[in-house]
Write a structure and sequence with these properties.
2-enoyl-CoA Hydratase, Chain A, domain 1, alpha/beta, 11 helices
Length: about 260
């Protein structure tokens, strides 16, 4: 039986593929649950040092499953309870990604719309194929993309985000890179290889340093300047106390490769 989220391991890199091409990998209830389970399991796996997230078929992710959402309206309360639970579960997934110890890289092609664009923005890095389109288009059907804008507004300048939210227009991959939503844009034929190169580069670093650094990166963003420096100084001390950090510095000074445990 085909799994909704497929897992492939390549040494220290885990590849997760959303496998619902018929719905453009929409974030259905089942997809949200499968992604949350897979990511949580990988987060607890010390042998995994980077995670790549991609979509099968013609697109990365088309956002929420609108047919499923409309079915939720049939409840006695008109769907209010279902919708509250749905957006809470989706928000929990988006917050799970930056909380994982490993960097998560989105490998994006086709389209990434609404909650699919939110998913890209929630990942730590993203590589996109030329021709990929990004949008928060809910306003076109009368549903403002309020939850997707949380992650998007933390990646892209606010006036540009507001324009995307209120016009419902797409931006192309090159523009997404200019605005900071994605790191790299490559021809579609090179997408998998370029994402793999980035993932393997990250996976080759000292895992404890990356883990400490990722946590500190997100912790300091919400702090004022002085508090951010105080917090990250304490993190640097923590990092310096690691045996393998000492070994890495000694190896650099002695012009040799580090002997990391």
């Amino acid at each position: 039986m085909t799994e909704l989220v497929e897992l492939r391991r390549d040494a220290a890199v885990a590849h997760l593929t959303m496998n619902a091409p018929g719905s453009l990998n929409a974030l259905s209830d089942a997809m949200l649950a499968a992604l949350s389970t897979r990511l949580s399991e990988l987060g607890a796996d010390g042998s995994i040092r980077a995670i790549v997230l991609k979509g099968a078929g013609k697109a990365f992710c088309a956002g929420h499953d609108l047919k499923e959402m409309q079915a939720g309206r049939q409840a006695a309360d008109g769907g209010r309870g279902y919708f509250a639970d749905l957006f809470a579960r989706c928000g929990a997934l988006m917050q799970l990604i930056p909380s994982l110890p490993q960097p998560v890289i989105a490998e994006v092609h086709g389209i990434a719309t609404a909650a699919g664009c939110q998913l890209v923005a929630s990942c730590d890095m993203a590589v996109a194929a030329e021709g990929t389109r990004f949008g928060v288009n809910g306003v076109n059907i009368g549903l403002f993309c309020s939850t997707p804008m949380v992650a998007l507004s933390r990646n892209v300048p606010r006036k540009m985000v507001f324009e995307m939210l209120t016009t419902g227009e797409f931006i192309e991959a090159a523009r997404a890179r200019e605005l900071g939503l994605v790191n790299r844009v490559v021809p579609h034929a090179e997408l998998a290889a370029e994402t793999e190169r980035l993932a393997q580069t990250v996976a080759a670093k000292l895992s404890v340093a990356v883990r400490i650094g990722k946590r500190a990166f997100y912790d300091q963003i919400g702090l004022g300047l002085s508090d951010a420096y105080a917090h990250t100084a304490a993190v640097m001390v923590e990092n310096m106390m690691e045996r393998d950090t000492d070994e890495g510095i000694c190896a650099f000074i002695e012009k040799r490769k580090p002997d990391w445990a």
